[in-house]
Amino acid sequence: MTLQSIHSLPENITTTRPKRIIRNPDDMEAVMPEIHDRIDASRKAIAKGHPFAVAGEYLQNVIGMPADLNDPLLSVILPDESDIATDNDVGHLVSIENRRVTKSPAITQKYIGSVIMTVTSVCHQRCTHCFRKNVNDTISVLSDEAINQAFEDLDSIGGDNIFDIIMSGGEPLTVKPALIEKIALQRDQLNRKRGLRGVPPIHFSINTREPVVMPSTILNNPEMIEAIRHLNPLVISIQILHPREITHGFVDVMRIFRGMGIGLRTNHPILKGVNDDPNVLREMYTKLAEHGVFPKDLIHPIKSGIPREKCVTLERSMEIMRELVKRLPGTLLPRLQCCTPNLGKSFIDPFHMKKDGTFGYDMENGEIIGLRTKDGEKNQPASAM
Ligand code: SF4
């Protein structure tokens, strides 16, 4: 921005740099007075207890300064009354008991062969659509004891059937690099023992939004980069909602991850008004592919803390997916899925037809006919729709 253009800014526009993390709407307003009304509309929800935090980098590089009052991405960081009235179904966060191979509080297991390791509840941002938004207020980071117990339990007959550990949070890349190093060391030891038993190695993957929210956490942190290199995840899945979230910082982080030979994917929810548009998604997937990031899952959110008014219908999600099929090569197509509370992921066929010949799924006796979980066992309860 030139000096001339700074001088010609309207009076209510500021050029002050935002704090690293903003946890108070007043601090956001101090750097973005031009969207006073939008911030003010959020104060009620925040005062009633809806979490609020936004990274200064996200404001500067994604929202942009000065901000646009009509920017749909503001709804991702600024809660409203509908957000406070919507709870996440905690079933998303619990294991299927008879499938669990470890009692470690660090591990959630819904699927055969795959577990989630929650390393922290901490996150630099509090997205309004976060499915953990009602549960991640207590700041906690995985203890050494919990890591030890998780790996002891995984070193068992049941554990030998696990081949994939998804590192998740909160935001897993907010932890100290030493914690990731410890996990990587434990994984190495476990894989040596598995090798002696003739069992294939266990791999890690990471689910993160940090390269979007605060890429400097990774870029300015050589120890974190080394810890990720040691963990050597097969895949890093990044939640990206919109093409504008592909910033210079994001691209630099992808370059580092690609240099380590890590597969890069994106999985993200469909949010009404933000990315429920096949053109927006096509632009995003095409741009991401230029940086080696390929789509994985396009999530139709169900009971995951997102208010109904911010979700599209199942039929609309299917329609968006059918449009993407027409506009993108197969390599750039995500799988349409929903996360069934208690049961896990179900894949949605965008061309599935109801009995009446229209696209969609019929419901009978509390089940959606034809929709199965990832492990193919059960249908989606109708109440979840
Ligand atoms: S960055 Fe991820 S964990 Fe953090 S609030 Fe957003 S969706 Fe939730």
Please explain how this structure is put together.
The chain is of the alpha/beta class. The protein folds into three domains: 3-84, no CATH class; 89-212, TIM Barrel (Alpha-Beta Barrel); 234-385, Alpha-Beta Barrel (TIM Barrel), CATH 3.20.20. It contains 14 helices and 13 strands. Helix 14 (314-327) links the parallel strand 9 (293-299) and strand 10. The longest helix has 20 residues, at 177-196. The protein binds iron/sulfur cluster. Iron/sulfur cluster binds next to loops.
List keywords for this structure.
385 residues; globular; alpha/beta; binds iron/sulfur cluster; 9-stranded mixed β-sheet; TIM Barrel
Topology:
Blueprint: H1 3-7, E1 21-22, H2 25-31, H3 36-47, E2 54-55, H4 56-63, H5 74-77, H6 81-84, E3 107-111, E4 114-118, H7 144-154, E5 164-168, H8 177-196, E6 203-208, H9 210-213, H10 216-219, H11 222-231, E7 235-238, H12 248-259, E8 263-269, H13 278-290, E9 293-299, H14 314-327, E10 335-340, E11 344-347, E12 363-364, E13 367-368
Parallel strand pairs: 4-5, 5-6, 6-7, 7-8, 8-9, 9-10
Antiparallel strand pairs: 1-2, 3-4, 10-11, 12-13
Helix pairs in contact: 2-3, 7-8, 8-11, 13-14
Iron/sulfur cluster is lined by residues 123, 125-127, 130, 132, 169-171, 209, 213, 239.
